[in-house]
Amino acid sequence: MTREMMTPQAEPPHSVGAAASDAACETPGVINGAALSDHAIGGVRPPWRLVDMHCHPDQLANGDEVARDAERLGIALFCTTVSPADALEARERFNAAPNVFVGVGLHPWWLADGRCDESDIESAARLAATSRLIGEVGLDFNGARAETAALQERGLSAILQSCAKHPLPGRVLSLHAGKAAGRVLDLLEECNIPARCSCVFHWFSGTSDELARARHVSCLFSVNERMLASKRGREYARQIPLERLLIETDAPRTFGQRSSAAALGSSLERTLDTLAGIRPESRDRIADQAAALGMDLLSP
Description:
Number of domains: 1
Radius of gyration: 17 Å
CATH superfamily: Metal-dependent hydrolases
Strand content: 15-25%
CATH topology: TIM Barrel
Distance between the termini: 25 Å
Largest sheet: 6 strands, parallel
């Protein structure tokens, strides 16, 4: 979710195994204790050239057009939603788009400002029970949003408990954590979610200790060009193991605006350019690995 104010607006059956030790996940070609498919380490590109692991095409005025053009350009999109109602609408809207994968979301901003309430928490938990892709969910304790911490935690806990009670192979969560990474990790661990699911922190902005803790419990990380605009963001992206690194746009900046698949692709390409400048691997190696991992997560 973009750090700018937005206005509001699930998933087709599309795996990655349960988490193992941190040591196993630090091994190239292994994620959550399971070997990636051969294309992840053999240099052969997967079906999609780029995978945007956190974006909101359902909130674009021309989202259908963007999805069609993205398919033509070889770009897959993890459509993270902000409410259970939006998840259901996005599932129907993108049902025929083979490159769009819709998650069940309950964004903490929507709980914090009243756009979502207790009934939405119940709906999100109910949807999560039968959904493999979950996102965007999490906590945000920035500024006045910290006053609704208890409500936000009830929302996230309900979704995590639903996932724990109704396990599905290859479940993926895209997580928001604004000044709350430690608490998000607490709740994940209380439900043993890192051992059951692939947990992806999007645009990680916690402390270095929280980053180490997230790595220790086998979390993954999706980064975007705005995260990489900061010195700390670049340092975090340098520290993330290649086999845990994904790319995203978090587009759009403002809900309801128009965009293009070319703009999404350009943002992802710029992210790859920056990553290649701060990491030891070649740009092609980073691009291939991120695309392969993204598709291993999104596809059955």
